[in-house]
TrEMBL record:
Keywords: Nucleus, Transport. GO terms for biological process: nuclear pore organization. Transmembrane segments: none annotated. Belongs to the NUP186/NUP192/NUP205 family. GO terms for cellular component: nuclear pore inner ring. The keyword Nucleus applies. It is found in: Nucleus. Signal peptide: none annotated. It comes from Manduca sexta. GO terms for molecular function: structural constituent of nuclear pore. This is Uncharacterized protein.
Length: 815
């Protein structure tokens, strides 16, 4: 066709445009016959396809035009014809050319276009460059040219959408045909970075969506291309990285999607239908991307700050209420014994199958329950106080403290209005010049900014505490109410060990918020109670030797047992380290820590089972009664040896702190659990040198002398209606420790040398013998309050009799 040369010299192309319009009209009138071009006839539409593609479309961007808009007019006509041909084509194995001979019939025009779109061809390059250029021209191109640019953009997106939707069918047809056609795939080619900003064309599609209110058809096509191209997770991650690379671009894309969703719909015309299609496509895109690994593109489009690791107080507060709602649901389901609801909740929190027998150790790795506190900060940076130029720091601190207000979430907040009113009154009473007043006003604004920041940090601390409290409730309720047929002992142990390790690894005792520290110590205590309960259940059902039971309890294989042993070692180190630095903490925290340590020691201090070998029959009764000798004759378990090594590493500091709490002026419960811990520590390692610390630093003497201080309280506890029984239980804890110390010959000698017999002999409470015959049956034991007779007989005297018996066994002559 020679007329193209004439049109090029004239820089006008009316005949070419008319030819393309004619072909498009003929193609739209009826589908192309499959036999067109078969046999000896002229090969169908191939000459026209070649002419439109190679003579009109590909050279169009490089030609000169008398009227600039004719370039986009020509491209829009060519692209619209290509869309028509591609929509009428479905891949078939017969379309691929045979090897070694000419084909019986030329394939439809859509086959040739589709193959070029899935390879690195000039047609694909033309489409992608025209896509970028058309988008750039949309914002500023006025007049007649804008109409053709919009038409070209819509046709380009339709071509890409159709090609992506046929990619899998084309590959399948090529495999069935067995032809050697190299197909790279448009889904991969569209990700290649090009252009001045080195971005892929998916970024351009995202930016086209922002024109949804004005270009509904283009926005709908762009969303369809994104949905098809982002089926592969790698493509979605690639696009997310490109969008978040620049903050300005990220904000533009996110706002564009929001504007498209919020665009008003008027009437029932084609433009409104396209806008509705774009909105539905965005929602479906979010629905398809949300299940992928976070952070993903859906989170970005929904407004999450993916590059900011810190969560705002509002976000943490919202999460905390969701977690608390889960805790309430778990408690309600447990109270009503709704097994299905508990199983579903456990499945959601642990990401494990509902059937308990299918759980493995790997099922609990990074489960939701553990990830809920993974990124939760346990401390809040204190707001630094600025340097004041005009105010006295001490007086200003007192003034700010006087403006504190109690809030409903706990803690205090500074009333900014009160601070402002107070400082304003001071400024009004100030006799100063105008420049000086201006300086004071600036200083007042500085104070208000500081107070606002302090309130912000306090709000964050309260929010973190509320969130952790919600997680604590969920965790504690879950382990308390979920039965063993849903969460078996083995899975329960694994989950408990993992959560304990995560929690103790996250808490830094020196930096943790006091409120979170109190709650976390209680959580550690309850989790260890549950772990000890698992031990008790398996111990009852087992008839194995201690060493064999230890192997079966802490792991079915050597590798798992070693991992669990290391976890237990880490837990013990963290608990002891926390005790060492918690001297200035609340009594509640110390009680929780000592309780956690006591439960841990009961787990490690495996009691001997009936399957263990009996003692040597040649040993004497006295030697068997002496704990220092008995322990040496038994084989130490590996866990007990590990615990002894860890405790020994902390040295005398740990002994000093525990002994101080045993005789200190703290809460009675704190003294009781400290005494119990000291009792258990000595039982685990009777050969420890803690006896020297108790004696040399005067702790043992103070403990024995404190028995006389409890005399009056013991007499009150023996009344029919006592005010409190705390003294009785503290006395019992003290006597239990003295009995444990007297279990060895060296300990008995030390206890006697410190005046234990003299202190016990001076107890006047022993003379308060109740009349057990008068009204004895009317004062029966209750769950927490024993009768008067049992208080005197079992609580007070039995401890003394046992103590005397231990000492007599060491020094008396028993045949």
């Amino acid at each position: 066709m020679l007329f193209i040369q004439v049109e090029c010299r004239m820089e006008e192309y009316p005949v070419s445009r008319a030819l393309v319009s004619l072909l498009e009209a003929l193609s739209a009138a009826a589908p192309l016959p499959r036999a067109l071009g078969a046999g000896t006839r002229t090969p169908g539409l191939d000459p026209y396809v070649d002419y439109v593609l190679n003579q009109l479309a590909l050279p169009a961007p490089h030609r000169s035009y008398a009227k600039p808009h004719e370039k986009w007019e020509m491209l829009s006509l060519c692209f619209r014809l290509f869309v028509r041909w591609l929509e009428q084509y479905e891949p078939s194995p017969s379309d691929f050319p045979p090897t070694g001979r000419e084909p019986d019939a030329n394939p439809p025009p859509g086959f040739r276009l589709l193959v070029q779109l899935h390879t690195k061809s000039e047609l694909l390059r033309l489409l992608l460059t025209s896509l970028d250029e058309a988008h750039e021209l949309l914002d500023g191109q006025p007049g007649q040219s804008r109409e053709f640019v919009e038409q070209s953009l819509v046709s380009i997106l339709q071509l890409l959408e159709r090609a992506l939707s046929l990619e899998r069918a084309l590959n399948s047809a090529a495999v069935q045909a067995g032809r050697g056609v190299l197909l790279v795939g448009l889904s991969k080619l569209i990700l290649e970075p090009e252009g001045p900003e080195n971005c892929c064309r998916l970024v351009t599609c995202c930016r086209v969506v922002s024109h949804g209110p004005q270009l509904a058809r283009a926005a709908a096509g762009a969303v369809s291309v994104l949905r098809l191209a982002l089926h592969a997770p790698a493509a979605a991650r690639h696009l997310l990285a490109l969008l978040t690379h620049k903050h300005a671009r990220a904000a533009e894309v996110r706002h564009g999607f929001v504007e498209c969703l919020e665009a008003e719909e008027y009437g029932d015309d084609e433009e409104t239908a396209s806008l509705r299609q774009a909105k539905e496509g965005i929602v479906m895109l979010l629905h398809e991307l949300l299940p992928t690994a976070p952070p993903n593109l859906a989170h970005f489009l929904l407004g999450y700050q993916l590059t900011d690791d810190s969560a705002s107080a509002v976000t943490i507060s919202a999460r905390s209420w969701v977690v608390r709602a889960c805790a309430s649901s778990c408690g309600a389901a447990g109270a009503a014994r709704q097994v299905a609801a508990l199983s579903a909740l456990l499945h959601a929190l642990a990401h494990a199958p509902a059937a308990a027998h299918t759980h493995t150790a790997q099922d609990w790795e990074w489960c939701l329950l553990r990830r809920l506190i993974e990124d939760l900060p346990m401390s809040v940076e204190e707001t630094p106080e600025p340097r004041w130029e005009l105010f006295q720091p001490n007086q200003l601190r007192q003034a700010i403290a006087s403006c504190d207000l109690h809030t409903g979430m706990g803690g205090k907040r500074i009333s900014v209005s009160r601070v402002l009113a107070l400082l304003t009154r001071e400024l009004a009473a100030l006799n100063a010049t105008a420049p000086q007043r201006n300086l004071v006003s600036l200083e007042i604004q500085k104070v208000l900014d500081y107070v606002t920041e302090v309130n912000h940090q306090r709000n964050l601390a309260a929010t973190l505490t509320h969130y952790y409290d919600s997680w604590r409730q969920l965790t504690e309720i879950l382990f308390c109410v979920v039965p063993h047929d849903i969460l078996d002992v083995e899975s329960r142990k694994t989950l408990l060990l993992n959560i304990l390790q995560d929690l103790l690894n996250k808490i830094q005792p020196n930096d943790v918020l006091p409120q979170i520290g109190n709650l976390a110590s209680g959580t550690v205590l309850l989790l260890l109670v549950n772990l000890r309960h698992c031990y008790i259940l398996q111990k009852r059902e087992s008839n194995l030797k201690t060493s064999d039971f230890e192997t079966s309890f802490f792991g079915p294989s050597n590798q798992i047992m070693q991992t669990n042993s290391l976890t237990l070692k880490f837990i013990l180190k963290k608990i002891l380290s926390w005790i060492l630095v918690s001297g200035g903490s609340t009594q509640k925290m110390r009680v929780n820590l000592y309780g956690a340590l006591l439960n841990y020691l009961n787990i490690v201090n495996l009691k001997h089972s009936p399957a263990d070998p009996e003692e040597d029959v040649n040993s004497t009764y006295v030697s068997r009664l002496d704990s220092s000798k008995v322990k040496s004759s038994r084989e130490e378990s590996s866990l007990r040896s590990m615990a002894i090594d860890v405790i020994s590493d902390f040295g005398e500091n740990l002994c000093t702190i525990v002994c101080s709490d045993c005789i200190g002026a703290g809460h009675d419960v704190c003294r009781m659990v400290a005494l119990s811990c000291l009792d258990m520590l000595i039982e685990i390692n009777p050969r420890t040198d803690w006896m020297n610390t108790l004696t040399n630093q005067g702790y043992l003497r103070s403990l024995i002398d404190s028995l006389l201080q409890d005399d009056e309280g013991l007499k009150e506890a023996l009344e029919p209606q006592p005010k409190s029984l705390r003294v009785l239980y503290v006395y019992e804890s003290k006597m239990a420790l003295l009995i444990k110390l007297a279990a060895s010959r060296a300990g008995a000698e030390t206890v006697l040398s410190q005046g234990a017999l003299a202190s016990l002999a001076n107890l006047s409470a022993l003379d308060c013998h109740p009349d057990i015959h008068t009204g004895y049956n009317s004062h029966k034991d209750t769950e927490f309050v024993p009768s008067v007779a049992n208080r005197w007989k079992h609580r007070t005297c039995h401890c003394i009799f046992k103590y005397f018996y231990r000492n007599y066994a060491k020094f008396g002559h028993i045949p």
